[in-house]
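Milestone 3.1: sequence recovery, worked example.
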């Protein structure tokens, strides 16, 4: 299954909005972007693997715990 990934996709736009908000408030370390980036990756993994639960960055059904 391929994902139609474009810069104007809602999930990507929300990710960049969160990053802009962090920058606006002076947050700039790597850990600040961890959760938004993880959420973005989980969103696309969920779509591509047709699964709903992600554990430690891996789909629970067959590849995760």
């Amino acid at each position: 299954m391929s994902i139609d990934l474009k810069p104007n996709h809602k999930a990507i736009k929300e990710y960049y909005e969160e990053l802009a908000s962090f920058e606006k408030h002076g947050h700039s370390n790597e850990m600040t972007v961890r959760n938004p980036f993880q959420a973005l990756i989980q969103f696309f993994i969920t779509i591509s693997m047709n699964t709903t639960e992600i554990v430690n960055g891996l789909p629970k059904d067959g590849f995760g715990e």
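The two ends are 23 Å apart (CA to CA). The longest helix spans residues 34-49.
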